[in-house]
Amino acid sequence: LSPYPGRPFVFMGMHLRKTLGKQFVSIGFAFDRGSFQGLDFRTPTPGYFLWKGFSVGSYKGSYGNTMARTRLPLFYLDLRRLPAPGPVRDWFARPRVFRWINAIYDGEEEINHMFHLPSLHDGVIFIERTQRARPLPGGGSPPVPY
Mean pLDDT of residues grouped by 10 in the chain (146 residues)? Predict the structure, then answer.
Protein backbone atom coordinates (compact mmCIF):
# COMPACT_ATOMS: atom_id res chain seq x y z
CA LEU A 1 0.00 0.00 0.00
CA SER A 2 1.02 3.57 -0.61
CA PRO A 3 2.32 5.61 2.33
CA TYR A 4 0.81 8.71 0.72
CA PRO A 5 -2.57 9.65 2.21
CA GLY A 6 -5.38 9.35 -0.31
CA ARG A 7 -3.14 7.75 -2.92
CA PRO A 8 -3.82 4.01 -3.35
CA PHE A 9 -1.05 3.56 -5.93
CA VAL A 10 2.67 2.97 -5.63
CA PHE A 11 5.00 5.57 -7.14
CA MET A 12 8.09 4.67 -9.15
CA GLY A 13 10.32 6.10 -6.43
CA MET A 14 8.87 3.59 -3.96
CA HIS A 15 9.94 0.73 -6.25
CA LEU A 16 13.39 2.28 -6.62
CA ARG A 17 13.74 2.70 -2.83
CA LYS A 18 12.78 -0.96 -2.31
CA THR A 19 15.23 -2.14 -4.96
CA LEU A 20 18.17 0.19 -4.29
CA GLY A 21 17.79 0.91 -0.57
CA LYS A 22 20.07 3.69 0.67
CA GLN A 23 21.66 4.01 -2.77
CA PHE A 24 18.45 5.71 -3.90
CA VAL A 25 18.07 9.37 -2.93
CA SER A 26 14.66 10.98 -3.42
CA ILE A 27 14.74 14.73 -4.03
CA GLY A 28 11.50 16.71 -3.93
CA PHE A 29 10.66 20.27 -4.90
CA ALA A 30 8.86 22.77 -2.69
CA PHE A 31 7.74 26.26 -3.64
CA ASP A 32 5.93 29.14 -1.99
CA ARG A 33 4.04 30.72 -4.89
CA GLY A 34 4.20 31.25 -8.62
CA SER A 35 2.99 29.99 -11.95
CA PHE A 36 3.07 26.65 -13.72
CA GLN A 37 1.28 24.93 -16.55
CA GLY A 38 -0.89 21.88 -16.60
CA LEU A 39 -3.82 20.20 -18.26
CA ASP A 40 -6.95 22.08 -17.22
CA PHE A 41 -9.28 19.48 -15.69
CA ARG A 42 -11.45 21.98 -13.79
CA THR A 43 -14.37 22.15 -16.24
CA PRO A 44 -15.20 19.85 -19.14
CA THR A 45 -15.49 22.48 -21.89
CA PRO A 46 -13.75 22.97 -25.23
CA GLY A 47 -10.06 23.18 -24.36
CA TYR A 48 -10.52 20.83 -21.42
CA PHE A 49 -7.38 18.90 -22.39
CA LEU A 50 -5.20 21.88 -23.34
CA TRP A 51 -2.07 22.98 -21.51
CA LYS A 52 -2.76 26.25 -19.70
CA GLY A 53 -0.92 28.51 -17.34
CA PHE A 54 -2.00 28.81 -13.70
CA SER A 55 -0.81 30.89 -10.76
CA VAL A 56 -1.13 30.29 -7.05
CA GLY A 57 -0.27 32.42 -4.05
CA SER A 58 1.42 31.46 -0.85
CA TYR A 59 -0.34 28.95 1.42
CA LYS A 60 0.12 29.89 5.08
CA GLY A 61 1.70 27.16 7.20
CA SER A 62 2.76 25.01 4.23
CA TYR A 63 6.31 23.74 3.85
CA GLY A 64 6.90 26.23 1.03
CA ASN A 65 5.47 29.19 2.92
CA THR A 66 7.61 28.43 5.97
CA MET A 67 10.74 27.89 3.87
CA ALA A 68 10.11 31.26 2.18
CA ARG A 69 10.44 32.89 5.59
CA THR A 70 14.20 32.16 5.39
CA ARG A 71 14.28 34.90 2.68
CA LEU A 72 16.48 32.60 0.60
CA PRO A 73 14.94 32.33 -2.89
CA LEU A 74 16.56 28.96 -3.65
CA PHE A 75 18.17 26.29 -1.48
CA TYR A 76 18.59 22.58 -0.89
CA LEU A 77 17.70 21.03 2.45
CA ASP A 78 19.00 17.56 3.31
CA LEU A 79 16.14 16.06 5.33
CA ARG A 80 18.36 13.17 6.44
CA ARG A 81 20.45 15.64 8.44
CA LEU A 82 17.88 17.59 10.42
CA PRO A 83 19.35 19.01 13.64
CA ALA A 84 19.19 17.23 16.98
CA PRO A 85 15.92 17.44 18.95
CA GLY A 86 14.67 20.97 19.14
CA PRO A 87 12.33 23.39 17.35
CA VAL A 88 13.43 22.54 13.78
CA ARG A 89 13.20 18.77 14.23
CA ASP A 90 9.89 19.19 16.10
CA TRP A 91 8.48 21.29 13.24
CA PHE A 92 9.43 18.66 10.65
CA ALA A 93 8.00 15.86 12.82
CA ARG A 94 4.38 16.76 11.96
CA PRO A 95 2.61 16.49 8.59
CA ARG A 96 2.06 19.83 6.89
CA VAL A 97 0.67 21.05 3.59
CA PHE A 98 2.99 20.10 0.75
CA ARG A 99 1.97 21.55 -2.61
CA TRP A 100 2.14 18.75 -5.14
CA ILE A 101 1.50 19.54 -8.80
CA ASN A 102 1.63 17.13 -11.69
CA ALA A 103 0.45 17.40 -15.30
CA ILE A 104 -3.22 17.76 -14.32
CA TYR A 105 -4.58 20.85 -12.58
CA ASP A 106 -7.97 20.45 -10.87
CA GLY A 107 -7.84 23.63 -8.80
CA GLU A 108 -5.77 25.01 -5.96
CA GLU A 109 -7.43 22.87 -3.29
CA GLU A 110 -6.33 19.76 -5.22
CA ILE A 111 -2.61 20.59 -4.99
CA ASN A 112 -2.49 20.97 -1.19
CA HIS A 113 -1.73 17.64 0.48
CA MET A 114 -0.92 16.84 4.10
CA PHE A 115 2.40 15.03 3.98
CA HIS A 116 5.27 14.33 6.33
CA LEU A 117 8.05 15.66 4.11
CA PRO A 118 10.93 13.61 5.63
CA SER A 119 8.90 10.45 4.87
CA LEU A 120 8.47 11.50 1.23
CA HIS A 121 11.96 12.64 0.34
CA ASP A 122 15.56 12.53 1.50
CA GLY A 123 16.04 16.14 0.49
CA VAL A 124 14.09 19.03 -0.94
CA ILE A 125 14.97 21.81 -3.35
CA PHE A 126 13.10 24.96 -2.40
CA ILE A 127 12.20 27.53 -5.07
CA GLU A 128 10.48 30.61 -3.66
CA ARG A 129 8.65 31.62 -6.84
CA THR A 130 8.03 29.29 -9.77
CA GLN A 131 7.52 30.40 -13.34
CA ARG A 132 5.62 28.42 -15.93
CA ALA A 133 7.39 26.93 -18.91
CA ARG A 134 7.25 29.17 -21.94
CA PRO A 135 5.52 27.85 -25.08
CA LEU A 136 7.74 26.93 -28.02
CA PRO A 137 7.87 29.36 -30.93
CA GLY A 138 5.26 28.44 -33.49
CA GLY A 139 2.70 27.51 -30.88
CA GLY A 140 1.03 24.17 -30.78
CA SER A 141 0.40 22.01 -27.82
CA PRO A 142 2.25 18.85 -26.84
CA PRO A 143 0.21 15.67 -27.17
CA VAL A 144 -2.16 14.90 -24.30
CA PRO A 145 -0.76 12.02 -22.26
CA TYR A 146 -4.18 10.58 -21.40
Answer: 59 87 93 88 66 88 96 96 92 92 78 88 96 75 57
Separation CA 61–CA 81 (nearest Å):
22
Residue 51's alpha-carbon distances to 114, 123, 142, in angstroms, are 26, 29, 8
Contact 115, 4 (CB under 8 A): yes
Q: Assign 105 to helix, strand or coil.
A: strand
Beta-carbon neighbour count of residue 86 at 10 Å? 9
* DSSP string of 13-59, one letter each residue: HHHHHHHHGGG---EEEEEEEEEEEEEE-SS-STTTTSEEEEEE---
CA–CA distance, 6 with 78 (Å, rounded to integer): 26
Hey, is 91 helix, strand or coil? helix
pTM for this predicted structure: 0.80
